[in-house]
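Journal club prep — side note

Before the paper discussion, L.F. wants everyone to see what a predicted structure for a comparable chain looks like in token form. Sequence:
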Amino acid sequence: MDDRIGSLVPGKYADFTMLDRDPRTQPLERLRDLEILGTWVEGESVWNRIDIPATGAAPSLSGA
């Protein structure tokens, strides 16, 4: 299954959620303030905020 899962690369399935900030850098008491920007299941966009294009692929993070 290594050819289908395990990393975020083209051609592999991806289940992930994009947040507005890195939760690993936030104090514990601020984690509840994180905002969900989008959710992907098997590499397809299933929910996103209105300002993220629903293209079926994760938006580019370059320059972020």
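L.F.'s comment for the group: The first strand starts at residue 16 and ends at 19. Keep this in mind when we get to the figures.
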